[in-house]
Design goal:
The protein is an alpha+beta fold and 321 residues long. It is built from 10 helices and 14 strands. The longest helix has 41 residues.
Length: 321
Amino acid sequence: MHGFDIYFILLIMTVSLCIAVFSIWFIAYYQETKREASYKLVLESDQETAFLFDDANLIDATESAYKLIGPKTHKTSDLERLITAFSSRFSTLSNDLSALGSEGELTIIPDNPNDTARIKAQWWDGFSRLVFVDTNAESETPLVENTNITALESELDTLRNTVRLAPYLVWQETANGEINWANAAYLSLANLISSNSSNNSWPPARVFDISKNVIDDLDPKTFRTSVKPSGSEYPLWFELSCKQVNETILCFAIPADSAVKAETSQKEFIQTLTKTFAHISIGLAIFDKSRKLVLFNPALYRHDKTPHRFSKPATHTLCHA
């Protein structure tokens, strides 16, 4: 009897364990099936440009949506790829999506007020559903082919504004020195120095005479040059850098008037010191920050007939004898 009781108890325990394991598996399977059905319902139509994210992972997307983001990489998440693809039009996209969980539903508007695109974002059973629509039509239509074109146009506008508003000169020359493109800063300077009474003529005047040796260098160096506007007493200084791009030469010029003025002031200061020291009976020596002797007056030479043997000071840059 005792043996029968033990086997019976073991049988009950085994059956109970099997039932428990099966119950856990069934619940997990049911929840996963329900979850899959849930996000399949989220992508309501293949005609939509829609994405479905689980946190930063792209779970599913319509065919048109897959065309809008770049290829998958190991360095960036799916969500980062989408943000990168649309950040030029929707600069607040990253912050808006961070708040989606608490808001539940958002309509994200592009930076350009004339852009009719919208991103409708929804928080759905732990998923983020993003649908791109164009409100320009009578009824909201999905963005498919025109999204890439609009993104390129937006990037082009950004580049144009950047070059147009840049405070430095940018221009492009042909091999024979003719200007075939220039930004607003260059055109403004060209009009100042041009002897032509008609401003804004094309092609504009060639402001800088650039040596081919500088252009042909594999590692172009920045060099300084000046131009004198018509009717001006003082020249304008610039630091130039040029690079061969296919059959043309792309050049940049940064104003260097402040640097030239500072260098001139420094030279004048040293000349003034030299003249002053020459009439002082006390021997004086000036050292640079590397503790090298850069200036001394005649009195120091008379005091120590060999100034080259003058020892370097430990802490001072101005010494007298």
